[in-house]
Q: What sequence folds into this?
């Protein structure tokens, strides 16, 4: 792993680990914000409609995936899990478009954009192959090689 990755991944992960721990210790404020979204999510996804339980599960997921991103095993999967957990967190927690007070709207907009930036960092981490070709590229190349080999087989070869 490069020095850049060794520094960047823990820095990116620290936000999620810290926030997740804070939420597990004091879920109340986040539960109140989640109340707006939980019924909609529970309707369309197989999730319980208990806001506090969902907030705590999301926090635990962020701590676990954040630690995995920070220490290195499965960084792309950890980044994907964090990205998935960040979307509902951002929509429920920082709905600046619903704020009427200009100061509160500005604060929530800043937090929303911060989370959007974090999502961008997670997307980069998800796509980072550390200089190695991606699985999709390797699969395509293997298929091309197999196709060339089959094309060079004599017509008299029986496959059955």
A:
């Amino acid at each position: 792993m490069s020095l850049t990755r060794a520094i960047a991944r823990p820095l990116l992960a620290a936000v999620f680990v810290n926030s997740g721990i804070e939420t597990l210790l004091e879920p109340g404020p986040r539960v109140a914000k989640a109340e707006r979204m939980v019924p909609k999510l529970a309707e369309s996804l197989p999730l319980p409609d208990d806001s506090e339980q969902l907030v705590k599960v999301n926090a635990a997921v962020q701590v676990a995936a954040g630690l995995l991103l920070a220490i290195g095993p499965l960084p792309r999967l950890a980044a994907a899990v964090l990205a998935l957990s960040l979307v509902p967190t951002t929509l429920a927690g920082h709905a600046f478009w619903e704020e009427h007070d200009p100061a509160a709207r500005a604060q929530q907009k800043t937090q929303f954009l911060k989370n959007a930036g974090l999502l961008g960092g997670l997307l980069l981490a998800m796509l980072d192959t550390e200089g190695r070709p991606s699985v999709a590229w390797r699969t395509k190349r293997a298929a091309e090689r197999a196709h060339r080999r089959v094309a060079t087989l004599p017509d008299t070869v029986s496959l059955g």
About this structure: The two ends are 48 Å apart (CA to CA).
